[in-house]
Structure prediction request, 173 residues.
Amino acid sequence: MSWKGGSKSGTKFENLVNDSFKNIEQFAFHVNANSILKPACDHRVAFRGLSFMIEDKKTNSENTSLSLSVLSSDQVQWLDRHDQAGGGVSALCFRVVWPNKSRCWIGRWDDIKDYCARHNRKSIPLRPVPDIFTELHQIERPNGLGKCYDMLPWLDMAWHRKLEEILSMAWVP
Prediction:
């Protein structure tokens, strides 16, 4: 199981990801915590000027291929959002339009199932990343715009520095 980044498959970008994050769930957890949930409260999906998602395709019953892709913000299609009374976003469900026109559902598993049920969707095209969002906690935003998700306090800055190193080499389509 390996990570591929944009058009740089097999290059230093992919090798750095594979060498740095042997635990795929851990990598997905951090990437989702930073790139999806926090900025999504601002109605955008971005991190340091880039937008990126985890794509999780079930290739067969025994093998799942995961890839890290860097996207532009106009490739994100919002599907649904549930507002709290105070104006914060309590649940997010959206999908990505990849350059090859395939779709990827991103969000908490329960939110995606709920969206499909309310809009009479009989199937979910792609299985989302594992429901690791339950490992996150909510904090108050300093600007008073309600709550957003943030990472657990025990995560250290070494990971952030490694993520920035990866993103600095990321390919923007």
